[in-house]
Amino acid sequence: MSNVNLVVTPRARVTAERVKDILQRIGNINERLGFLCTGMELALERLGRGVGDASDQVDYFSDVALEFEIAAHDLDGVVRLVNKFTS
Q: 39-54 as b/e, with b when 16 or more CB fall inside 10 Å?
């Protein structure tokens, strides 16, 4: 059986750290979007059943839309980072 020796260069270490950062950021964005979608589903169900004040629902949807915009901006930042990383 032969032994394999891996040499981790500073560049490889930086690359691994960047990949880890990218994956973590994508995971965070995915988690936030999942919570937002679940919240929207529940709010739509409540709205459909006529539960709660309509103005509260509108405010909630406005807040969720802002969170989607922030998540989209964060995702755009990740895409730029990946493009920079791979170019």
A: ebeebeeebeeeeeee
